[in-house]
Amino acid sequence: MASIQFTLDNLRRILLEAAGADENVDLAGDILDTTFAVLGYESIALLETGGRIEREYGIVLDDDDLSDDITPRDLIDAVNAQLSLSEARAA
């Protein structure tokens, strides 16, 4: 079975679908280590983003994984950790 990986491109797509983007933020740029607060995403937008990730990937994220003081890299790592756990349980 192929391992599913959540990528920055996946996150960008879901962020745009869930909450759009601030016109002053270039999501296509180097955003991996920029906090969501600086990117213009507040807690409600991140909750919607997290809900979409959970539904699409069949995982559950912790509330701490969706705070506006984390970075896209942090969220991607959290999603991939949950995906790995899910795959290990299914094996």
Layout of SSEs?
Elements lengths: L7 H12 L16 H4 L3 H15 L14 H19 L1
CATH fold-level label: Non-ribosomal Peptide Synthetase Peptidyl Carrier Protein, Chain A
Spatial gap, N to C terminus = 9 Å
By DSSP, the count of extended strands is 0
CATH class: Mainly Alpha
Structural class: mainly alpha
Report on the biggest sheet: none
Which regions contain 5 or more consecutive residues with pLDDT less than 50? none
% residues in beta strands: under 5%
Number of helices, counting only DSSP H or I runs of 4 residues or more: 4
Principal-axes shape call: elongated
Using the CA coordinates, give the radius of gyration.
Answer: 13 Å
Series of H and E elements: HHHH
What is the CATH superfamily classification?
ACP-like
Oligomer: single chain
Named at the architecture level, the CATH assignment is Orthogonal Bundle
Protein name: Oxytetracycline polyketide synthase acyl carrier protein
Domain Carrier: 5-83
Organism: Streptomyces jeddahensis
